[in-house]
Amino acid sequence: MRHGKKDNHLSRTHSHRDAMLSNMAVSLIMHKRIETTVAKAKELRKYVEPILTRAKEDNNQNRKVVFQSLNHKEGMKELFGVVSDKIASRPGGYTRIIKLGNRKGDAAETCLIELVDFNETLLAAAAEQATTKTRRSRRGGAGRKTEGTTEETPVAAATEEAPSAEVVEEAPVDEAPVAAAEEAPVAEATSTDEAPAAEETKDDETKPAAE
Questions:
Q1: What are phi and psi of 98, to 5 degrees?
Q2: Is 138 strand, coil or helix?
């Protein structure tokens, strides 16, 4: 029973399946992209990505393990030479699957599986997007901003007009107190000046009488 086993046998025996995946892995390493069915591409990705991870570190042990899977001298040279230099800085996810639709005949779902670091078109597009970052806005964001501005403008206008109205109303009222304030000290000064004079005259009149 196959409970919990997720591997796709691809309707082949174990030896046939391994030989097919090995040949497909060599073709992918040599040509950088191949066209196949989606089912085979998904199994090939699980088969070839551990091989690519081992190729990032070139030593005798990794070469022995990879050669057991590939069994192809030219594929080994390409893998440990060109491919390993390209994928050195990538932590994983070396392949990409692009679906192409159903093919004629058996209507199988086909796709293109390729090495990510060798698609120059997509790499150039990604570099342009990184240099020119655009800000995403939610749908209806512009409408919300305009509503906020329309609500704020009347408040600002009212606050600006309020001080001018107060100045116009208070201007004629302030003139009368100023005139009264200027006249009040004069009246007080005269009253204070006259009081000592009156006292002096009384003293002068009382002095001869006492004598």
A1: -115, 115
A2: coil
